[in-house]
Amino acid sequence: MPRAARRPPRLRGTVFRGSQAIADGLLTRNELRSSTWRPLFRDIYADADLPVSHRTRCALVARWLIPEGAAIAGRSAACLYGATNLDEQAPVEVVVPAGTRFGPVAGLRIHTTTLTDQDVRRRDGVPLTTAHRTCWDLARWLDPVEAVTMIDQFLARRIVTAPGLRDYALARAGDRGWRLALRAVDLADPGAESPQESRLRVRLVLAGLPRPETQYVVSDRGRFVARLDLAWPEVKVAVEYDGLWHSDPRQFHLDRRRLNRLLGNNWIVLHVTAQRLRDDFDGFVAELQARSTDAAKITLLPGNSGLDSCR
After folding, report:
1. Overall average pLDDT of the 188-208 stretch
2. What's the rounded Cα separation, in Å, for the pair 133 and 180?
3. What's the confidence (pLDDT) of residue 11?
4. What DSSP state is assigned to residue 311?
5. What share of the chain in percent tops pLDDT 70?
6. Residues contacting residue 159 through CB under 8 Å, at least 6 positions apart
7. N or C terminus: fewer CB in 10 A for the chain?
8. The predicted structure's pLDDT at residue 242
């Protein structure tokens, strides 16, 4: 039988530098390579029984890897603020002040740009970009749909406000990507209740449709009828994103009863699934236009509604 790997008490349930463990005589190089220890970054290991999240990885990067003046940024900062979830294996995003030589480092996504002391704060000892700076960077670094999806969550959680983000972007007018940041703020909406709802709404607007109202409440003579994900109340057309909760029979029953009431109020309600959003979005837009009434049809707005012109 193979010998069980040694697990020195000092290292159990901890994260440590491999070189230091070897220097202290706690492990040999061969023992360090065993499945008992999990490599996280170069020379940084964890007890394999220790749960490691993206937040954990961010803390380790801040403690042992990034230079003075650098900070956790982008999607990783958004994760620390609770505006998104990231897989443990996702690269940790960091921003390094211009002129600082650092990297590349496996497991990190490094951005080098202008960074001031006012753009960085500490949270549980971890330096990360402020919420406003994080949203600014997301708008400049990410696909427009994904950037707005995360900014929606910042707004929904009241971490930032739209006027505050707008002022931040306007104060940096002329900087690379400032128009992208401003446009992302204009597209953002705190009403989205899930990232997929955000993605659906933003893609519809970028496709040229008028901006829908989020979480629109339909009433009949003062009585509540339904709350809709996205709605154009002036033409009584709505879009509902069908998420995983539809596997719940009771929720499915309640939802269909709600939609029956809407039909009685002359609403048209279209449903879109993750597969439709991914594989047939153009077809869904065409269906949305075709199903609206001839008298008050949802029409595409003239011109390009995308963000490319804002760069």
Report:
1. 94
2. 14
3. 96
4. -
5. 86
6. 81, 82, 83, 131
7. N
8. 83
The first and second tokens of residue 115, run together, are 């960074």
Instruction: Give mean pLDDT, residues 247-271.
Output: 65
Amino acid at 65: L
Helices (H), the chain: 18-23, 29-32, 54-64, 74-81, 131-141, 144-156, 162-170, 178-187, 195-206, 249-264, 274-279, 281-291
In this model, does residue 4 exceed pLDDT 70? no
β-strands 268-272, 237-241 pairing = parallel
Would you say the pTM of this structure is higher than 0.90?
no
Largest CA distance in the chain: 81
Phi, psi of 160 (to 5 degrees): -135, 170
Name 126's bridge partners: 123
- Bridge pairing between strands 213-220 and 223-232: antiparallel
Q: Which helix (H) or strand (E) holds 216?
A: strand 213-220
Short-list 75, 275, 307, 83, CA closest to 195: 83
- List the chain domain ranges: 9-47, 54-187, 195-291
- Comparing 53-67, 184-198, 202-216, 229-243, the range with the smallest average pLDDT is 229-243
State the pLDDT at residue 307. 47
CATH number of 195-291: 3.40.960.10
Look over the chain and give the mean of its residue pLDDT values, rounded to a whole number. Answer: 88
| Percent of the chain scoring above 90 in pLDDT | 72
What are the residues whose beta carbons fall under 8 Å from the beta carbon of 272, sequence distance 6 or more?
A: 200, 239, 240, 241, 242, 284
Q: How far apart are CA 128 and CA 236, in angstroms?
A: 44
How far apart are the C-alpha atoms of 141 and 183, rounded to whole Å? 14
Q: Is residue 154 within 8 Å of residue 164, measured between CB atoms?
A: no
Residues 6+ apart with CB under 8 A from 246: 252, 255
